[in-house]
Structures are given as C-alpha cells and as structure tokens.
Amino acid sequence: MIYFFLVLAGLTVMDLIQMITKKQKREIAVYLAFMLLVGLFGIFYYSDPERTSFTGLLFSFIGLGE
Amino acid sequence: MEVLASTDKISIRQAVILFITVQSSPVIRIIPKYVAKTAGRAGWLAPLFSVLPFICLVYLMHLLFKKQWDANLSDLYLKVFGKFAGKLVLSFYLIWTMILLGFYVRYFAERFLSTLLPNTLPTFFYITILATVFYAVRGGLINIARTVEFLFYLFTVVFVTLFVFSIPNIQFINLFPITPFDFLPLVRTIESVLGIWGYFALMFFFGDKINNKEHIRRFGLQGALFLVITNVMLLIQTIGIYGHTVIQRIPLPYFVSIKAISLLETIERIESVALAFWVFIDFTIISFFLYLVVSIMKSLFQLSDAKSLTSPLVLFAFIFAFYSAGDRLELQQFTDFIGLPVNIFVCFIMPAVLLAVGKIRKLL
C-alpha cells in the first residue's frame, strides 16, 4: 500500500509540474480529481483486499450470485 | 509504410491492423471455449456467421463518418444527442472502457499464472505490463500503431506456422459431420464473436487521429476477410485436435493445442513461442484501452491535452486488476454473462442508435 501511494505522489508531482508549465488549468483540475478518486479507490481496496470482488458485487446486484 | 496525410495521425490501414491485433487476445481466450460449448463440432464455422453483422458494422461506421471525416465518435455523440445526453453516453462508455482496461490487465496476469509461472505474484505482471503500456501510450498513438504494424506481420507468420505444425494432430472426426441442425447453434455463437469484433467501433473514439477514413469500407472488409480466415484456423486448430467436449472444459484451449505440437518427435514445447506473442497482443489491447479511455476523457471534459491522465488511469488499472474478480471462475463468468452482452450493446446497438437519431435529426 505504501509503495502504491509513493508512486501516486511521485507521478502527481511529475505531471503537475508539466501541466503548470503549460498553464493547463482545466487539465490540472480533472487530473487532481481523478488522482484523488484513484487514491480513495486504493485505500478502499487495501483496507480489505479480501472483500467481495467487483464481479461478485455485480452478480449479487443483478441476481446472478449464489 | 503508407504515406500519411497528416504526420500526427495513423492511417485507416494501420488502425485496422491495430484492431485485428486487439481482438486476437480475447478471441484466442474466449471463442474456442464458447463456440465449442454452443455449436459443438460445427463451432469452427462460427466466424462465417459473425462476419455478416461485422460487415454491417463497417458500413455503419462508414455512414457515421461520411460527412465528417475528421470527427471522432465522441464528437458525433455530442452533436447528435446534445451536450447533456451526449455526455451521459460518453460517461457510460468511459466507465465501461475503464472496467475493461482493468480486466485485461488481470487476464494478462492470469494467463501466465495458469500456464508458465503459477507461483509468481500477480503484482509482478501488473507492474511489468502497466509500466510498458504507460510509456507506450505517453509516446502517442503513432508509435503504438507502427510497433503493432511491424509485430503484426511477425505474429501472423508465427500463427500460420503453428497452425501448419498442428495439422498432423487435427482429426476430421472432431470437425465433421455438420448437419442442418447445427444452423441455429451457429447463429447463437454470433454473440461471443461479435462481442469482441465490436471493438472495431470503439477504435473511432480516437477517429480524429485516423487519416483516410473515406477508406473505412475497403480496409474494413479486407480486415473482415482476414478475421474470418484466422478465426476459422484458430477453431480448426483447437476443436479439430481435442474435440468440442474437451475444448469447452479447458481454460486455455489454444495454448493446450500448441502444447500438442511435436516436430519429428524431437522439437517439442514450442508453446513458449506462442506465449511470447501473446504478451505482444496483450500489450496491444491494454495500450489500446488506455489510449481509448484517455481519448474519451479528453472529449468528455473538453481538454486540450489529456496525455497526463495516463498516470491516474494506470494506477486505477493496477488496483482494479486486483479488485475485478476473486478467482478465474469469476473472470470467466464476467466475460460470459456481462462482458460480451455489454460489448454488443456499446459497440453495435449504440452506434446504430446514433446513426438512426442522426439521420432523423438530419445531423449526419
């Protein structure tokens, strides 16, 4: 988990520097929003890697599960 | 190599080659099992049935872009459905392609885990493929298309060679007789083949990066012919060697059929050659989906440059590959019950609705 967030932080800094240099305000907003969502998804997954999978959830949602 | 009308775009010929390579990975994994289960020993004729709807798709794309060769599919959705409904449709495409991206990363790892390297951590495969794809997609579509174009010829040579080597193992009792009763089961196999060949439509989400779209029909139909021939070869090679009852029960039928090859009883275990090319086609499909998601996001959020979005998407794919399914059975079930039907909806039905609404509103 710690490595995932280190990579996430590293990539964010690297990309932000490039986007700030090019003055891409809209791109920065979308980028940060997606990075935040990915970070939250990472926390969600790593907090319990054994939780019901996406397919499992989908199947129980549409009534195909056990 | 073809002379390009615009240097930052790929030609329609390169795009069709990219599509053929993209469809190879899921076709090899899914189709032999599915058609063996649905149509039995007649399954090897399934591509001949699926090619007709595919040709319709080629014509559909031609009609969609007939009056606007420089547009992409996102532009057309926004133009025809209006800003709000168009963005809703694009959001659905975005979510679905992101899901497929994660699943294809997972499939890549599962292939190694179930064949050559069963005791390796999946993390190793995820990081390896995603790091490669990250740099490839950042390099742009032209670099990916040229690499794929070059390797495509090698892949075709290897595929045909392995087929020729397999011929002594093929038993005609596994492929014949075919009776009129096989007609309806063969029609039912269309779902599986089209669920994958439909990726042809997804390619036009970066249609603004494809030159000479006025030749969609010509290259699309040539591609269709190539698909039929190679898919029939694949099915003869799998069903023909082991028979439909065995093929529908084993996880990687093509890999197993390659394993059976023995040249003069001295050269054996050449499945590693096939696996090496499987890595290449997996690299292509994951790059394709990553580039596709970036292109949809670019149109959806009206961005001038979306290259930087590859970073969050690669990280998403990494996590989602773990989260996508608990085991191989769930992966298989996702493909059968959700993946293929939704693919047909997004790749065939939605573009057809787009064309119909566009024609009614006289916008296309």
Element layout with pairings:
The complex is a heterodimer of chains A (66) and B (364).
Chain A: H1 2-21, H2 25-47, H3 54-62
Helix pairs in contact in A: 1-2
Chain B: H1 12-39, H2 46-65, H3 73-81, H4 83-113, H5 122-138, H6 141-166, H7 183-188, H8 190-197, H9 199-202, H10 216-242, H11 244-247, H12 253-259, H13 271-300, H14 310-323, H15 328-360
Q: What do you see in this structure?
A:
The complex is a heterodimer of chains A (66) and B (364). Chain A has 66 residues and is mostly helical. Chain A has one domain (2-62). Chain A has helices at 2-21, 25-47, 54-62. The radius of gyration of chain A is 17 Å and the shape is elongated. Chain B has helices spanning 12-39, 46-65, 73-81, 83-113, 122-138, 141-166, 183-188, 190-197, 199-202, 216-242, 244-247, 253-259, 271-300, 310-323, 328-360. Chain B has one domain (12-360): Amino acid/polyamine transporter I (Up-down Bundle), CATH 1.20.1740.10. Chain B is mainly alpha-helical and 364 residues long. Chain A binds chain B through residues 4, 7-8, 11-12, 14-15, 18-19, 22, 24, 26-27, 30-31, 34-35, 37-38, 41-42, 45, 49, 52-56, 58-59, 64, and chain B through 99, 297, 301-306, 308-309, 311-313, 315-316, 318-320, 322-326, 330-331, 333-334, 337-338.
